[in-house]
Structures are given as C-alpha cells and as structure tokens.
Amino acid sequence: MALKWRLCGLLFLATTLNYLDRQTLSILAPTLQRDLHMDNAALGWLFAAFYYAYTFAQVAVGPILDRVRLRWAFGAAVLVWSIVSAMTGLVTSFTELLVFRLLLGIAEAANWPGATRITAGALEPRERALGNGLFTSGTSIGALIAPALIFAIATQLNWRWAFVLIGLLGVMWFALWAFSTRDPKLESVWRYEVEEKPVQEKPAKASLWRDVSEIVSSTRFVPVLIVAVLVNPCLYFSVNWLPTYFAQQRGLTPGAQLGWILTAIYLGLGVGNFL
Amino acid sequence: MLVLTRQGHSLAAAQRTVFLAATVPLAACAIVPFVGLGPAVLILIAVNIGLGVWTAIYLTMVQDVAPARVSTSLGILSGCGSLAGALAMWAVGKVTHETGSFLIPLVALAVAGAISAMAGCVANRERPVLQVAHDQIA
Fold first, then answer.
1. Does B24 touch chain A (CB under 8 A)?
2. How near does any CA of chain A get to the CA of B13, in Å?
3. Residue A165 above 90 pLDDT?
4. What ipTM, to 2 d.p.?
5. A106, A153, A238, A273: which has the highest count of C-beta atoms within 10 A?
6. Confidence class of residue A173 from pLDDT cuts 50, 70 and 90?
7. Judged by CB atoms within 8 Å, which residues 120-179 of A form the interface with B?
C-alpha cells in the first residue's frame, strides 16, 4: 500500500481512538447518571464542557501545528488525551468528571487540525476528499465499535475499567505511530508548504494576525464557517445524545439491543465518509 | 467524489452534488419522534450517512480556504463549529430536561441541514485550483 494511504490509516486509527475516548461517557451516560446522581441538565453540561474546552484549544492549537513538526506534536497529542481518558475512570463525583472532560477536550483538539494538515501535505487535491473521508471515518468506526466494546467492558468489569482500557489503546497507538512514521519520504509531509507563495517572499516571521487575516478575508471563509457551525452540532447530537434518546424516549436499556441499534446508526456515518 | 471527477465533473461540481445529495436524508430527522422504532432507526442511519458525507467534504472545503495555513484555518473554523456544538449540547440537555421530549432538537437538525446545504453550494463554487507543492510520496 502506498505510504500516503498508510499514513491516512494511522490518522484513521487516531481518529477512531479520539471518538472512542469521547464516546465512552456518552455510551455510559445512563449508568453514570444513576451512579453519580446526574439529571439530563447535568449531562448536558458535561457534554458541553468537553466542547467548550475543545473549541478554545482548537483555535489555539491550529497556529501551533502550522509551525511545528507534526510527527511528534500529533503523536504527543494522542498520547496525552489517552492518558486523560484512562484517568477518567478514577472519578467519584460530577465535579471531577467535569474537570476530566475539560482536559480531554483540550487534549483531543489537535486531532483534526493536525490530521487535515497531514492529508493536505500527503495527498493531491483530488484525493483529499477520500483521504479526509478515510481518516474521518474513524469518528464513525469509533462510534460504531464503542457501544459493543464499552458495554462489554462495563458489563464484564465495570464502567471505570471501560475508561481505563479504552485510554490504554492510545498508548499502543503512539508506539505504532513512532515506528511507522520514520520513513524519510514523509519529510515533505512534516514540512508541508504551498508553492504559490515562494518561501523567500514570506516575511521572516509570519505573524499570527497575518495568518488569521488571510483566512478570514478568503471569499470561501463565510460559507465554510456557516457549514462548520451547522455540521458540528448535528454530528455532536448524533454521537452524544442518541444513546440517551433511545434510553429515555424509546425505553431501551443499555445492553445488547441498544448496542446493535447504535452500531447500525454509526455504521451509516462510516459509509457516508467514503462516498 | 473520485467517481464523479473521473467522469469529467469538476472537483467543485462533484463536491456540490455529493453535499446536496447528503442533505436530503437530514430533512427526515424531523419525523423521527412520530414513527416507530424500526423506521426511526432507518431514518437515523440515513441521517448519519449524510453527516458522514458532510464531514469529509467540509474538511476538504477547509483545506481550500487558506492552503498554506490548513491547521490554523481548521482551528478557527472548527473552533467556531465546536463552540456551536457545545452550545447545542447544553441546549439539548436543557430543552429535553424541561420538555421531556427530543422533538425540538430533531427538528432543529433538519433545519440546520437545509441551511448548510445552501452554504455548502456557495462554498463549492468553481474556482482556480491552487498548485500545491507535493513531493511524490510513494
């Protein structure tokens, strides 16, 4: 398999873990609501806290990732969010859970800015939709395997072990990433540049403000912004609230039936990524 | 996308076509509360196929906003998207807690689909393709 597609495969695995880690709470929400005495409003705060942290961290991490070698920056991000996810298994209260959700949101924010820059550097423009779809399908595959995997762990052990074991998968991914990205051919990906602006014409120190101005003044910025603020809530609703919707509105209890329904639904997300 | 571009469609036209087609099932979200479990699951599968298409094309759109600053572009745009998502998650919790129903969030999803389709078409208008420095990666 071509090196660039193997790289997309690793990004896919990282994205799968990214969603597995954030989905663990959503899948276990009915159980956690019972054990930690939380209502829907509290659960809403937990989901929102993750995305508030994720939002601000994503804005901050983008300019950083445009200036550093992505090989280690991206790998470190996956390692950190995996450790945070594993430590969530230790919480004993709503407040502690809230803190770990904030930390997870910060750590997971590097995934998309990092992965999209990597695919932009590794793939031709006409291949990017497929490359982006491939790594983004990790969201659906993560969401897809999450119900069965998390319910299985929670049933066999308990919900705390679900967080710990899912988090440990990220540590294994880091070792695979470090081993698989040693090829010198990938050097061009880590130092991705665009030809239309020759390096010598760039100012010695490109300012963040200039970068932001360039982005905001693009004619495509506003329509893509509208898409962004509409796509994300729809996607977040699907991956966060559907388990609770089926439990509360359809009377399904966490277990095999709910697991299969969620698996089928999130399989659709994966299919869509490849179309 | 690859099939459409191989058939001679421009990249932008292919993106518009796929993006619009993916929006159709999202509109069906509004009827989920009124149907039985089986049809509801089928509709939600279709909705998620649409969301999957949206996500891949959205990322491609972001890569074209400022090709030299992909991470920064994605950070800003998805940061705004995530903020909207955060507010939506909080709002869903509040609304479902007070109404005891998911009708409003599901209708909102359908409306968001329609608006996003229009914005996606504008974002995918024909434009010159930027030449990107690619070292050939085997």
1. no
2. 12
3. yes
4. 0.85
5. A273
6. very high
7. 120-122, 124-130, 132-133, 136-137, 139-140
pTM of the predicted structure, to 2 decimals: 0.72
Alpha-carbon distance of A252 to A247, in angstroms, equals 5
Token pair 């829907």 is at which residue? A40
Are A229 and B81 a contacting pair at CB < 8 A? yes
A to B CB pairs, distance under 8 Å: 342
DSSP state at residue A205: S
Domain borders along chain A are 3-193+207-213+222-274
Instruction: Answer whether B59's CB lies under 8 Å from B78's CB.
Output: no
Q: Which of B3, B23, B71, B132 to mutate to test the interface with A (most CBs of A within 10 A)?
A: B71
Mean pLDDT for the stretch of residues A200-221? 72
Which of the listed CATH numbers 1.20.1250.20, 3.30.990.10, 1.10.1240.10, 2.60.40.10 matches domain A3-193+207-213+222-274?
1.20.1250.20
Residues of B in contact with A62 (CB under 8 A): 71-76, 79
Mean pLDDT to the nearest integer, B20-29:
84
pLDDT at A106: 93
Residue numbers in B near A5 (CB within 8 A): none
Rg, Å, chain B Cα set: 18
Q: Please, is A37 exposed, middle or buried when counting C-beta atoms within 10 Å of its C-beta (0-12, 13-18, 19+)?
A: exposed
Question: Would you call B45 and A212 a contact, using CB atoms and an 8 Å cutoff?
Answer: no
Q: Given an 8 Å threshold on Cβ–Cβ distance, is A241 in contact with B131?
A: no
- Model confidence pLDDT, tens digit, residues A40-85: 888 888 888 888 898 889 888 888 888 888 888 999 999 999 999 9
Q: Is the pLDDT of residue A109 over 80?
A: yes
**To which residue do tokens 């998390």 refer?**
A150
Q: Which pLDDT tens digit goes with each residue over B42-100?
A: 999 999 998 888 888 888 888 888 887 888 888 889 888 888 988 898 899 889 989 99
∠ at Cα B61 (B60, B66), nearest 5°?
105
Calculate the alpha carbon distances from A17 to A23, A168, A186, B1, B130 in Å.
9, 10, 23, 26, 33
Residue of A nearest to B6 (CA): A126
How many contiguous H segments (helices) and E segments (strands) does chain A have? 12, 0
Flag whether pLDDT at A121 surpasses 50.
Answer: yes
Question: Per the CB < 8 Å rule, is A250 touching B89?
Answer: no
Q: How far is B10 from chain A (nearest CA, A)?
A: 10
CB-nearest partner of A233 from B11, B48, B84: B84
